[in-house]
């Protein structure tokens, strides 16, 4: 943790210089998940030439190292610096729902600078936030990421406890922050949706929870403006989930993620084995 704290205190120019070196090492020396990254990019962008795919791969590595060094910076970054680097462009719908006494589900994805989402929401909006997280095996990184995400008061909720906790606290106007674009462990029981030119399984537990508790659902669309600077646009998926067609909330969420990826292709988590599961036979044709 001592070394992380030292990294967190470095000025941004040094951080980004270090990031460039680490990105080069991951790409050229370690070759970290390079085949996974290139396969994902080729399937997602079949229209791109091999050299364009290689350029995207290099840009991804730089985005990846920027992301994690920026996350570490979040441990020590001042409130003023956070406000300068993350702009929430249209939070009015969130405030309106909270004013009406309704908790709001805010979905996000592994795009752009997602590790700054929860702390910036906590700091800038200054409203109660329950943020879900998935435990990791390393106790060191578990503690580190918990500190980063909860720094400005977000209440962290482990995913296994989400349903029970949400029902118990449904009377409290708050934001419920969920990231639902990971690959499910049990793919065949998941919802399969076309995603970047291939069927992919998605969790639909968030949609079921929103319907059960009648929560408005909003997508926090984070976009990188320039290195270390982001904007968040809140896109309403529904304010009345129980009237939406089945699976429509999840399908709309996936569509919004894909639109963002196509705007900034390098800023997605391409090292994730997102399409590792084979779809059911009826979807393979």
Question: Could you characterize the architecture of this molecule?
Answer:
- The chain has 285 residues and is α/β, with parallel strands linked by helices.
- The chain has one domain.
- It contains twelve helices and nine strands.
- A seven-stranded mixed β-sheet has the order 1-9-8-2-5-3-4, sandwiched between helices. Strands 6-7 form a two-stranded antiparallel sheet.
- It starts with a helix and ends with a helix.
Which percent bin holds the helix content? 40-55%
Query: What is the H/E string?
Result: HHHHHEHEHEHEHEEEHEEHH
Which sheet architecture does the biggest sheet show?
7 strands, mixed
Through-space gap between termini: 50 Å
Mean pLDDT: 94
What's the total count of β strands?
Answer: 9
Low-confidence stretches: none
How large, in whole angstroms, is the Cα Rg?
A: 19 Å
What does the secondary structure layout of this molecule look like, with pairings?
Blueprint: H1 2-9, H2 12-30, H3 34-44, H4 50-73, H5 79-85, E1 86-88, H6 92-99, E2 104-108, H7 117-125, E3 129-133, H8 139-150, E4 155-158, H9 162-168, E5 175-179, E6 191-195, E7 198-202, H10 205-213, E8 217-226, E9 229-238, H11 248-263, H12 281-284
Parallel strand pairs: 1-9, 2-5, 2-8, 3-4, 3-5
Antiparallel strand pairs: 6-7, 8-9
Short summary:
This protein has 285 residues and is α/β, with parallel strands linked by helices. It has helices at 2-9, 12-30, 34-44, 50-73, 79-85, 92-99, 117-125, 139-150, 162-168, 205-213, 248-263, 281-284, and strands at 86-88, 104-108, 129-133, 155-158, 175-179, 191-195, 198-202, 217-226, 229-238.
């Amino acid at each position: 943790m001592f070394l992380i704290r030292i990294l967190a205190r470095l000025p941004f120019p040094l951080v980004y210089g270090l990031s460039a070196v680490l990105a080069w090492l991951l790409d050229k020396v370690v070759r970290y998940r390079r085949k996974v990254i290139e396969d994902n990019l080729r399937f997602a962008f079949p229209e791109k030439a091999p050299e364009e795919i290689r350029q995207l791969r290099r840009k991804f590595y730089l985005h990846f190292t920027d992301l994690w060094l920026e996350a570490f910076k979040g441990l020590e970054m001042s409130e003023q610096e956070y406000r300068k680097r993350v702009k929430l462009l249209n939070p009015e719908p969130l405030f309106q729902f909270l004013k009406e006494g309704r908790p709001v589900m805010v979905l996000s994805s592994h795009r752009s600078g997602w590790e700054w989402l929860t702390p910036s929401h906590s700091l800038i909006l200054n409203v109660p936030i329950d943020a879900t997280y998935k435990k990791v095996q390393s106790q060191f990184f578990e503690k580190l990421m918990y500190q980063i995400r909860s720094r400005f008061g977000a209440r962290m909720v482990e995913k296994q406890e989400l349903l029970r906790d949400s029902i118990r606290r449904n009377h409290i106007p708050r934001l419920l922050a969920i990231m639902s674009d990971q690959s499910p462990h049990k793919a065949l029981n998941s919802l399969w949706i076309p995603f970047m030119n291939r069927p992919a399984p998605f969790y639909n537990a968030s949609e079921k929870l929103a319907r059960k508790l009648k929560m408005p659902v909003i997508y926090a669309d984070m976009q990188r403006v320039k290195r270390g600077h982001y904007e968040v646009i809140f896109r309403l998926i529904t304010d009345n989930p129980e009237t939406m067609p089945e699976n429509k909330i999840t399908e709309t969420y996936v569509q919004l993620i894909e639109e963002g990826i196509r705007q900034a292709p390098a800023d997605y988590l391409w090292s994730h084995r997102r399409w590792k599961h084979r779809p059911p036979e009826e979807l393979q044709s």
